Sequence to fold (433 residues):
Amino acid sequence: MIFNIEYETMPREALEAIQLRRLQATLSRANAMVPFYRSKFKESGITPQDIKSLEDLRRLPFTIKQDLRDNYPFGMFAVPMDNVVRIHASSGTTGQPTVVGYTARDIDTWAELMARALTAGGATRGDIIHNAYGYGLFTGGLGVHYGAEKLGASVIPVSGGNTRRQVIIMKDFKPSILTATPSYSLHLAEAAEEMGVSFKDLNFRFGVFGAEPWSESMRKEIEEKLNLKAVDIYGLSEVIGPGVSIECHEAQKGLHLFEDHFIPEIIDPDTGEPLPYGETGELVITSITKEAFPVIRYRTRDITSLNPEPCICGRTMVRMNKVSGRTDDMLIIRGVNVFPSQIESVLMEIEGVEPHYQLEVDRKENLDILTVKVEISDKTFSDEVKELQRLSATIESNIKETLGVSVSVKLAEPKSIARSEGKAARVIDRRKL
Ligand code: DLL
Fold:
């Protein structure tokens, strides 16, 4: 570790003192510069000066995605526009895009965080990073890119897409680290196989996968198919982009959250009440060093829990468990709550099934119907009809047993489900059409 090791292994008391100081400065700036925060604070009868301890943070109101949309595009910026050097935006697939800005110092902070993240994942200066996160308004590509350069590694800015060319680059340049969404990494593996390139002959040591939920079983699948160690990275554009938290390569268990820049809380998504360490709920983040776009008690909608136990790697920062999904991706099927990643977990444990699936939700006669469409392997595809019926029945009963929900299963031909070049679209909810 070469970056700010003193923060990552700091005793809690010292860390909290830094957090409080940075929080107070952020609140004052937000209050002075962002009309939205000023009126929110006023409404709740709180001034930044009232926040005298980290516990006081709970007295502040939440910020939600709709607040960012209401202030589209630049209304939440806390610096004059001539201090903003970069703008990113979310894709807006679930409504109006949210727009975020960075000062030159923010870009530097982000690069430093990503360098720390890559270091925790196991990267060093000598590594060659094949960066297949999309470059553009999405924060994945440029986020990894700046971090890799800050670290001194060599980055290949290949972005997403043009998959066959990526395989040739992997073969010829011999990168040692792959950065991509988990779903795109499987697409790369498939393309390589079609081109007669084996990951066993490539040089990858590990991969840094994130930007979408992926289960532990998917991790196993990726590690096997790509012949590398897979670590999970988390982030969101509203908070900074990738680099909010990452697993260390030593433990691969829980994502260390960079608490010198972000204060995490877990709340009950229904009541907004804070939950203690260990309990699962919605992650809320307050940024404490961002200049252009600070967020105060931002409700991420991501479901996870926090673990304060020290890690075998030596970092003392709190760990987030793997995000199981977003509150708005949760399917409620006849009263049962299901996350796509839970279905994924069950599917990946079944022989003959490929890691490509889609969930279709319909409503018939006032009943929710969930259809799990999953690809089968070439070998299974040539099996007798009776065998396929048995496989279908096994999937249905395993899902029913594990998640308590009845689904109907459609076995799909190999390579028939659309591949993603970024975040996979796992759910088609026709109830919303
Ligand atoms: O996805 C930033 C990112 C880029 C993270 C590359 C990691 C790697 P957004 O496009 O704003 O930013 O989407 C953020 O994606 O609120 C989560 O719902 C989801 N997400 C991100 N990382 C993970 C992860 C980027 N490791 C939204 N596991 C977040 C599960 C994730 N979900």
